């Protein structure tokens, strides 16, 4: 088949006359239901089916994955409308993604596949040495899961592939939340992962998301540079994210705050493994209440970090999310010692950098503090950004000197 001769056996989706064809040609990976002719035949296409996308004049544009049950009815898999999404196609994409990561990292601990930015719409794969954790958050990935697992094993040399069904996007795609062992044997204990000199314990079967957040690696490193000889407060700490990185760089003491007792237990184990148990402390509880309690105790820290979950996971929650980020900044700022540092993070893709910065500055101002913005951080390079999809640039980290 050639570029212009798609497989006639495949279903066809057709764009409406006013659809933004130019955006698709420039690389936009999503096509929404209101952009397509959703007749009875289109609505009957089984979720996960591979189809050909045509413009209103019936000219083939791309190979897409279809899910009529989702608002994102079509996800662009290949600009070639005749592409065959088979074992060879999947293997080539995995090889391309792996090449970037092996160029970036000496050890096999990273995000191997970052969804649309790596040409795998809706698919996340995190690597933990010989174990890979897959989040197939789109119907097409679920239907191709066995082939994907085999391609991952063949290219990486890993021995175990786990499916994590807890991704938020799976419900929107009409998928279940079941986890599974696709290949190999699931680890029977959390795995140690060394980053920035710190040891993190990743629970691949019972932990949050895939077990560890690789996206903050570079931001951990920057903040840790400010933590030498410092007292550190890490709020929404999960398994010790910023706190353990700070201890690895010479922080005198770190307090990790999180609502999850299992996450804090993993953080404590990580601190012990890196020989920093005596400098590490945890406090379980609601982050906002804990910030208020620490203020009542007249606590002060040289470095305060707040890395909350997504307060605005989608546009309808934007205003509420911005108020939450402002509140975090307002409660955290009084705990920062004079000339200390405050790190505020957002993983909400619906909140852009300007809006997030504004919310943080309002909160700091309401706390009566004056701030210098000294650094703006984003996700690490194993989480590449697809310029045509703003959602792929979800993470922001602002470092202020107060």
Automatic annotation (TrEMBL):
Gene3D superfamilies: PUA domain, RNA methyltransferase domain (HRMD) like, Vaccinia Virus protein VP39. One of its GO terms (molecular function) is methyltransferase activity. It is found in: Cytoplasm. It holds the Pfam family PUA_3. Keywords: Cytoplasm, Methyltransferase, S-adenosyl-L-methionine, Transferase. Its EC number is 2.1.1.191. CDD domains: AdoMet_MTases (cd02440), PUA_RlmI (cd21153), RlmI_M_like (cd11572). It comes from the Bacteria. Residues 188-401 form the S-adenosylmethionine-dependent methyltransferase domain. The keyword Nucleus does not apply. Residues 13-79 form the RlmI-like PUA domain. Its main location: cytoplasm. PANTHER family: RIBOSOMAL RNA LARGE SUBUNIT METHYLTRANSFERASE, S-ADENOSYLMETHIONINE-DEPENDENT METHYLTRANSFERASE DOMAIN-CONTAINING PROTEIN. Belongs to the methyltransferase superfamily. RlmI family. This is Ribosomal RNA large subunit methyltransferase I. It comes from Maliponia aquimaris. The gene is rlmI.
